[in-house]
Amino acid sequence: MDLVQPCTQDGALLNDKPSVFLVAGNRLLRETLAKLLVKRGDFRICGVSPYFPDITRTIVEAGTDVLILDSVTARLSECTFVSEILNQHPETKVVLIDMNDDPEIFLDCVRAGAVGYFLQDASAAEVVSGVQCVARGRAICPPQLSISLFRAFSRQWTALPNARIKLELGLTRRQQQLIPLIAQGLTNKEIAAHLHVSEGTVKNHVHEILRRVGARDRLQVVDMTRLWGAIR
Q: According to the CATH classification, is domain 156-228 in 3.30.390.50?
């Protein structure tokens, strides 16, 4: 392991600068980026290393503010490494570099907790600038992948129960699941087939939703719950 000691000035540690730990399989990449971050990004490098099994402890003990991982490390750990770091040190901001533009890989990394994502063709200046932004509490992602975030959020927002709806309208989890299907114009029979329940069960749920929401019909249920944020 080729750890780099913290930068010093007049014999004192520069603790006022954000600390960065670099983990990359390519030695030239990690050493070059470390020098760039110190020279152009005003960071303190607390570690530079290839991946090894016990590196999580080293990163946490270093008090890492920003952790930079290359695509090799991300693929080795399938992003579980990111989750492990954040479970032990939630303050760490994780940045991934040299990644591809596959939306699924990108979303997996975001779900794991990464807040910075740079593609293979990102320039050194873009990475340094992006890491500076991440250190200040912002998130960075390629513009062409931003749409993936919006779509993923939309799917999740529609599919998952809304806590406020449950709390204030008293709808059960199953009843909340019915609302997006009602909004799609599905019949009770079609909803029953979709949820693998009986048509009578769906009918009872719809009746209870109407009663709890105070709606006259299915259309008004959709309108009223949309106001509450149950569906898009």
A: no
